[in-house]
């Protein structure tokens, strides 16, 4: 029996070695089949590259504005909006240049020249400057802010700082594309975009860019920013309307119907039922308040729905504001509206 013990040990040793080799082989083969998913890293690099490209392309179309009064000098941003017959027109914040004795424009190249005030608009918060650079400049590529949707990626970009020559930029998403701001003095709406990141004061007047490198808004202040932590921009389509009037008149006049309204498309079914609005009615402006002494005080009431203005279907609030921009106070606008389930037509004199 003793003579078989070495044989048994040898057999056990050979079996153990074979088992070890098998396990190692399995581990090697399984490890060789492991794949690493790098898609998240690739996407992160892609977005980083796109944002960097947006900032680089926007810089040449952003300028620093220095406004001077007798006792102070302040700096801010400006957007190169257009170039007409070698006259460069720049949007900048109303509060920056209002009351200034003169202002200068500093381009991304570092060259500084004089700027001249063409007009200003308190309601939108914009002012229009003109300057005559002795070199070619790049204007912003204008986007369509009506096409901006919630959740869309955007970048906020400012001009270079005077002290450090640094460009401030932020990146995030549009949190609300259907916002509006109402001027307390004029009770007139302006179309806004809200983003999910803060816009600091030294970025006001800068550009809100989409991922294509188009400007879709001009960065502005908002009384809600400190509360919500969000940033705000005046939509570029609103700025287009302001530009046309500032360029040719130096001021902006808007016909005011004297109402507060919101889009029917945002209404819930139970709200429509309460106001006798058809459930399939998804266009028009729901009147939520009529101002005392306003143009519509004795004609329209809260709960009415304006379906069209001057024959144009009101698919969005921007469409309605565009119609109102085309009128001066004292003009009439033709409205078709629903009231208590019945359709009516009126010619309303704006104030």
Short description:
This protein is of the alpha+beta class and 351 residues long. 25% of the residues lie in helices and 36% in strands.
List the helices and strands and how they pair.
Elements: H1 5-32, H2 39-59, E1 62-68, E2 73-84, E3 87-93, H3 94-97, E4 102-106, E5 112-121, E6 126-131, E7 153-160, E8 167-182, E9 189-195, E10 207-210, E11 215-220, H4 225-228, E12 231-235, H5 236-249, E13 259-263, H6 269-274, E14 285-290, E15 305-309, E16 312-313, H7 317-325, E17 332-339, E18 342-349
Antiparallel strand pairs: 1-2, 1-4, 2-3, 3-6, 4-5, 5-6, 7-8, 7-10, 8-9, 9-12, 10-11, 11-12, 13-14, 14-15, 15-16, 15-17, 17-18
Description:
The chain is of the alpha+beta class and 351 residues long. It is built from 7 helices and 18 strands. It has helices at 5-32, 39-59, 94-97, 225-228, 236-249, 269-274, 317-325; strands spanning 62-68, 73-84, 87-93, 102-106, 112-121, 126-131, 153-160, 167-182, 189-195, 207-210, 215-220, 231-235, 259-263, 285-290, 305-309, 312-313, 332-339, 342-349. Strands 1-2-3-6-5-4 form a 6-stranded antiparallel barrel. Strand 10 and strand 11 (215-220) form a beta hairpin.
Q: What fraction, in percent, of the residue positions are helical?
A: 10-25%
- What is the CA-CA span between the terminal residues? 119 Å
Strand order of the largest sheet: 1-2-3-6-5-4
Series of secondary-structure elements, N-terminal to C-terminal: HHEEEHEEEEEEEEHEHEHEEEHEE
**Number of discrete helical segments:** 7
- At the fold tier of CATH, the topology name of the domain at 145-249 is Thrombin, subunit H
CATH H-level homologous superfamily name of the domain at 145-249: Trypsin-like serine proteases
Give the structural class. alpha+beta
Radius of gyration of CA atoms, rounded to a whole number: 31 Å
What's the overall geometry? globular
Uncertain runs are 5-9, 11-40
CATH structural class of the domain at 145-249: Mainly Beta
Number of strands: 18
The CATH architecture of the domain at 145-249 comes to Beta Barrel
Q: What summary fits the major beta sheet?
A: 6 strands, antiparallel, barrel
Strand percentage lies at 35-45%
Average pLDDT works out at 82
């Amino acid at each position: 029996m003793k003579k078989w013990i070495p044989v048994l040990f040898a057999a056990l040793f050979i079996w153990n070695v074979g088992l070890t080799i098998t396990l190692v082989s399995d581990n090697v083969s399984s490890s060789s089949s492991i794949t690493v998913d790098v898609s998240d890293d690739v996407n992160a690099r892609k977005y980083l590259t796109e944002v960097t490209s947006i900032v680089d392309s926007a810089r040449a179309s952003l300028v620093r504005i220095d406004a001077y009064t007798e006792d102070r000098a302040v700096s801010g941003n400006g957007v190169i909006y257009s170039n007409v017959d070698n006259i460069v027109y720049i949007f900048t914040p109303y509060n920056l240049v209002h009351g200034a004795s003169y202002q200068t424009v500093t381009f991304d190249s570092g060259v500084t020249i004089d700027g001249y005030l063409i007009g200003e608009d308190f309601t939108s918060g914009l002012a229009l400057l003109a300057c005559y650079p002795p070199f070619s400049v790049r204007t912003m590529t204008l986007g369509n802010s009506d096409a901006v949707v919630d959740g869309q990626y955007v970048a906020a970009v400012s001009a270079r700082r005077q002290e450090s020559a640094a460009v401030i930029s932020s990146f995030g998403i549009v949190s609300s594309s259907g916002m509006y701001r109402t001027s307390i003095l004029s009770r007139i709406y302006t179309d806004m975009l809200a983003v999910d990141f803060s816009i600091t004061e030294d970025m006001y007047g800068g550009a809100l860019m989409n991922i294509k490198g188009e400007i879709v808004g001009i960065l502005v202040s908002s009384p809600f920013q400190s509360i919500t932590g969000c940033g705000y921009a005046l939509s570029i389509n609103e700025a287009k309307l302001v530009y046309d009037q500032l360029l040719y008149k130096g001021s902006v006049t808007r016909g005011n119907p004297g109402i507060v309204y919101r889009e029917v498309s945002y209404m819930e079914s139970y709200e429509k039922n309460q106001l006798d609005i058809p459930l399939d009615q998804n266009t028009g402006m729901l009147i939520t308040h009529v101002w005392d002494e306003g143009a519509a005080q004795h004609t329209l009431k809260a709960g009415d729905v304006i379906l069209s203005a001057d024959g144009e279907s009101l698919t969005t609030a921007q469409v309605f504001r565009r119609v109102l921009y085309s009128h001066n106070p004292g003009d009439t606008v033709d409205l078709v509206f629903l009231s208590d389930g019945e359709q009516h037509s009126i010619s309303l004199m704006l104030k």
